[in-house]
From TrEMBL:
The keyword Hydrolase is assigned to this record: yes
Record-linked Gene3D superfamilies: alpha/beta hydrolase (3.40.50.1820)
InterPro entries, A to Z: AB_hydrolase_fold, Dienelactn_hydro, Dienelactone_hydrolase-like
Record protein name field: Dienelactone hydrolase family protein
Pfam families found in the cross-reference section: DLH
Record carries keyword GTP-binding: no
Keywords for the protein's UniProt record, in alphabetical order: Hydrolase
């Protein structure tokens, strides 16, 4: 209850103005926010370019960069958050951090290790419906697996929105869905 320390991870587009704008919104709500740059200054105009860079760097290296970015702060009890690829990164880190206070996922999820357990970790996911990267079958299975880990999970779906619908610089942007997402997400953070 009070200000949270939030670690916010960018999408495949890199650390774009939209991510800084999201961080500013969280800061305006009184939270402390850090936005690690896992792409080391690279930003991309298309998903394809971002994915190509991600594959070039490799999953392990990106995760290592994320872990190093988080390490100095994890003792404080972080809320992990992220957009799309960044959500997947946030989820992986949160499930491995016994001190995590919450997990806020925008437009993305990740595989869950079979032995993953958490102690009633509050998790909130905001996702387009349908989402090209997050099928209904996948999300249903993800929800059940997350519950099995001991997480307290809420999923908010936004019919007709594009994949990255909170990003005002993208074609996916849906203002009504984005505003609702932020209202719900800020409310979630206020309960942690």
């Amino acid at each position: 209850m009070g200000p949270m320390n939030i670690m916010l991870f960018h999408s495949t587009y890199g650390l774009t103005p939209a991510v800084h704008a999201a961080a500013a919104r969280l800061k305006d709500a009184g939270h402390e926010v850090r936005v690690p740059d896992l792409f080391e200054g690279h930003t991309f105009d298309t998903v394809e370019e971002g994915m190509a860079y991600k594959d070039e760097v490799g999953k392990d290296e990106l995760l290592k960069r994320a872990v190093l970015a988080v390490a100095p702060y994890s003792d404080q009890g972080l809320v992990y958050a992220g957009f799309s690829l960044g959500a997947a990164t946030a989820q992986t880190l949160a499930l491995g951090d016994a001190k995590a206070r919450g997990l806020l996922l925008f437009h993305g999820t990740s595989d869950i290790a079979e032995n993953a357990t958490v102690d009633e970790l509050p998790v909130q996911l905001h996702v387009a419906d349908p989402d090209p990267f997050e099928s209904h079958d996948w999300l249903n299975s993800w929800y059940l697996q997350m519950q099995r880990t001991g997480a307290d999970v809420e999923i908010y779906r936004y019919p007709g929105a594009g994949h990255l619908f909170t990003d005002p610089d993208l074609h996916d942007y849906d203002q009504a869905a984005a505003e609702q997402t932020w209202r719900v997400a800020l409310g979630f953070l206020a309960t942690l």
